[in-house]
Amino acid sequence: MSNRHNNNNNNRRRGRRHLEGPWRPGMVLPSATPASPTRATAPVASVSRPVAPAGRPNAAAAAAAVADVPVSPNYRGNLDNPRNLSADIPAGENCATWWTNLREGEREEGGAYRALFDSMRGIGAVSHAVISPRGGGHSGAAAKVEFFERAAVDRLLARWRAGRLRVAGRVPHVALNRVRVAAHSSADPRDPDGPPGSRVLRVGGDPRVVSVANLSAVLAHPKTRVLYGLERAGVVVDDGRRGGARGGEQQRRQQEQQEQQREPGVIDGRVYVEVEFRFASYAVQALRARDIFMAYGRRAGLSDLERALWGEVVCYFARDPCE
């Protein structure tokens, strides 16, 4: 497992982005569009809740334990935090965009983030995205999307102006967000010389603890305070890609059903599986989730088996399919 993890990190180092500007872990909701506390706090994607097979660590017990990882104080757009104020930059350097005229119904079905990110393939790595329900003076749903670099914004606007941007078959309106965000690095502030991060997190280990259901249960406990949007979550296929980024919805669902039925592989004589979470945000979602998973094995109250299995878990960031 260690060789697999190191190889992925080496690959990421070769493709590292060097962007100017400070690391910006915050997320900003436009002040005219307050988040709905009842609809924005739950994961968007539909994820089955865990049922522990006989003789395996119980996922519900996993969720009951709380990881000792602090929550970023600027999560959910705390405008009293200086890092959430509009950057003092010209409009031509703004990396934040504001989308309106999105389908509201997609939100309840868990397809809103999937449709949003599918529309941005080939644009650039996304730093953060949040979807807001109808309200605040805009019809339909709206979204704020931040990119790590301005070039991605220019590509997005060019696609939109050419009439080639669709979200779930609907033409959105895209503009620069009024709260400006400068280009910023995807480096982990605790490891600035390490591989770059992304909103795509992969978790590898024994399938008794590494599964979509079990990992989602760990994140779902209220005391972990992880609020996240999710494009997709599933088992990673052999070629390193999660299927369904392109093609029709029926093809996408068939691919995902096949992934759910995949058998775990064997590495160094041990059963091993990788699960990929495509979160809507890097800093406040993917990075936070990684810290929780990596700290989980140190929690008190775990059985010897659980502690051993969690001790073998590895996490790394994968390439954003929007690049």
Summarize the structure.
With 323 residues, this protein is an alpha+beta fold.
Distance between the ends? 27 Å
SSE order, as H and E?
HHEHHEEHEEHEHEEHHE
Task: Please provide the count of β strands.
Answer: 9
In the residues, how many domains can be counted? 2
Calculate the mean pLDDT score and round it. 73
Low-confidence stretches: 1-57, 59-76, 238-252, 258-263
Biased composition (Basic and acidic residues): 249-262
Biased composition (Low complexity): 1-10, 30-42
Region (Disordered): 1-42, 239-263
Summary keywords:
5-stranded antiparallel sheet, 2 domains, 4-stranded antiparallel sheet, 323 residues, 17% strand
Could you characterize the architecture of this molecule?
The chain is α+β, with helices and mostly antiparallel strands and 323 residues long. It folds into two domains: 2-17 and 54-74 and 186-318, no CATH class; 88-176, RRM (RNA recognition motif) domain (Alpha-Beta Plaits). Helix content is 27%, strand content 17%. The protein contains nine helices and nine strands. The chain has helices at residues 2-14, 59-64, 105-108, 112-118, 150-161, 212-220, 249-260, 282-296, 304-311; strands at residues 96-102, 126-132, 141-147, 173-176, 200-205, 230-235, 265-267, 270-279, 314-318. The strands form two sheets. Strands 5, 6, 7, 8 and 9 form a five-stranded antiparallel sheet that branches. Strand 7 and strand 8 (270-279) form a beta hairpin. The longest helix is centred in the last third of the chain and has 15 residues, at 282-296. The protein is elongated and about 55 Å long. The two termini are 27 Å apart. Mean pLDDT is 73; it is low at 1-57, 59-76, 238-252 and 258-263. Residues 1-42, 239-263 are annotated as: Disordered. Residues 249-262 have a biased composition (Basic and acidic residues). Residues 1-10, 30-42 have a biased composition (Low complexity).
